[in-house]
Amino acid sequence: MFGSLANLQPRQLAAQVLNFALVLSTAFMLWKGLSVFTDSSSPIVVVLSGSMEPAFQRGDLLFLWNRGQETQVGEVVVYNVRGKDIPIVHRVIRRFGGGSAPLNLLTKGDNNAADDTELYARGQSYLDRSKDVIGSVVGYVPFVGYVTILLSEYPWLKTAMLVFMALSVVLQRE
Amino acid sequence: MAESKISPHNLNELKNTTDDALGNYLRSLKFSQSNSKLDVRLAIGYTSVIIAAATFAADYKLGWEATKTWTAVAVVAYAILNGAFTYWMWAVEKGLIFEGTNAQGGRLSISSKTNKHDPTYYLTISSTSPGSSSPSTWHIKNPFTTWFTADGFFVAKPFQQWLASSIEMIGDADMKNALRDERDELAAPTPEVEIIGDGSGNGTVEASGVDAKSKGSKRGKKKA
């Protein structure tokens, strides 16, 4: 199989490499296009904990929307804690400010006993809507996200998948 | 040429191996290949890949908030280039596998395709002789079994004979593979064998007839 690859003309080899590069770059640009459309840095997230049960289970795939900053009480938002890069999905239970003033939010997990002040960064007692929140949940697909949970919990799976994808694209000419 | 064994049940492999062999064959016959169409595709494709890579690098280093506007621009540019790429492949290249000129200045371009569940190699040939400006275009086809053995080895001889016999410009460059009489029989089959093919003596008559015909065609070719 590799022999047939070595037999290719330089241009054909370049075309073959291009096919693989285009698969990767198109996937990336579709993701970025969705980011631009939803105005959110990560428009699709996976629920990692059970803190929002029974609304959302571990492994649910959530679709976010970040246009329109007037988030209301009862909406489920995804936010990043300052200094940590782990997105958390919880429900808004209080809002302060809004309108012309900057909007601040207090959140709580449906399944948690207390609100999120404990989770926030040191000295922070509320979320800044425009800085901390990645988006509001507008749709979800149950269970599908389990694939990514498996991939992050077993990193070798990720490597195996990438290698398999790369080989299949390079070796199979369409 | 393609000495490696392939799976004879994989239509893609049959087509790709044959496409490669066709290019090698024509290059060996001193056709000078023109790669301009493939080069345009490569240019469009690699430009879009570079745009995506730059977007990735910027996003990785500066983060989403800082790169928002430029990401939007890059996404639009990428979409346009991708559309152009697809258009080029489907509307301009159309399965082009060889384009080039022979020593006399005649232009030849060959596109190939296969249909699902049909192990037949379809070629669209377009040739322009040195003097004229309008190309003549025609289609030929042949089952892959003509030049692949049952266990997946490519055999060059029957493949080259097929091309040399059905494409004038290739036949002129490769006379020993241009079986004029065979082509003529394929085009207008004369049922000589069925009519007189019952005695052993008829076989020799037939063979000499074929010989004479092929000599005649070769002479004719040299004049042309």
From TrEMBL, chain A:
Entry's Gene Ontology cellular component terms: signal peptidase complex
Family indicated by similarity: Belongs to the peptidase S26B family.
GO MF annotations, alphabetized: serine-type endopeptidase activity; signal peptidase activity
Membrane topology listed for this record: Single-pass type II membrane protein
Subunit structure, as described in the record: Component of the signal peptidase complex (SPC) composed of a catalytic subunit SEC11 and three accessory subunits SPC1, SPC2 and SPC3. The complex induces a local thinning of the ER membrane which is used to measure the length of the signal peptide (SP) h-region of protein substrates. This ensures the selectivity of the complex towards h-regions shorter than 18-20 amino acids. SPC associates with the translocon complex.
Top-level lineage group: Eukaryota
Location relative to the cell: Endoplasmic reticulum membrane
Stretches that traverse the bilayer: 12-31, 132-149
PROSITE patterns for this protein: SPASE_I_1 (PS00501)
Keyword set includes Magnesium: no
Record's protein name: Signal peptidase complex catalytic subunit SEC11
Described purpose of this protein according to its UniProt entry: Catalytic component of the signal peptidase complex (SPC) which catalyzes the cleavage of N-terminal signal sequences from nascent proteins as they are translocated into the lumen of the endoplasmic reticulum. Specifically cleaves N-terminal signal peptides that contain a hydrophobic alpha-helix (h-region) shorter than 18-20 amino acids.
Keywords: Endoplasmic reticulum, Hydrolase, Membrane, Protease, Signal-anchor, Transmembrane, Transmembrane helix
Catalytic reaction(s) noted: Cleavage of hydrophobic, N-terminal signal or leader sequences from secreted and periplasmic proteins
Primary location class: endoplasmic reticulum
GO biological process annotation, one example: signal peptide processing
Protein source organism: Recurvomyces mirabilis
InterPro entries noted in UniProt: LexA/Signal_pep-like_sf, Pept_S26A_signal_pept_1_Ser-AS, Peptidase_S26, Peptidase_S26B
EC number of the protein: 3.4.21.89
Keyword Hydrolase recorded: yes
UniProtKB/TrEMBL annotation, chain B:
Superkingdom, natural source: Eukaryota
GO biological process, one term: signal peptide processing
Keywords: Endoplasmic reticulum, Membrane, Transmembrane, Transmembrane helix
Compartment(s) where it occurs, according to its Swiss-Prot or TrEMBL record: Endoplasmic reticulum membrane
Matching PANTHER family: MICROSOMAL SIGNAL PEPTIDASE 25 KDA SUBUNIT, SIGNAL PEPTIDASE COMPLEX SUBUNIT 2
Function: Component of the signal peptidase complex (SPC) which catalyzes the cleavage of N-terminal signal sequences from nascent proteins as they are translocated into the lumen of the endoplasmic reticulum. Enhances the enzymatic activity of SPC and facilitates the interactions between different components of the translocation site.
Region annotated Disordered, chain positions: 182-224
Pfam families xrefs: SPC25
InterPro entries: Spc2/SPCS2
Protein name stated in the entry: Signal peptidase complex subunit 2
Topological type in the membrane: Multi-pass membrane protein
TM region(s), chain numbering: 40-58, 70-90
Any single GO CC term annotated in Swiss-Prot or TrEMBL for this entry: signal peptidase complex
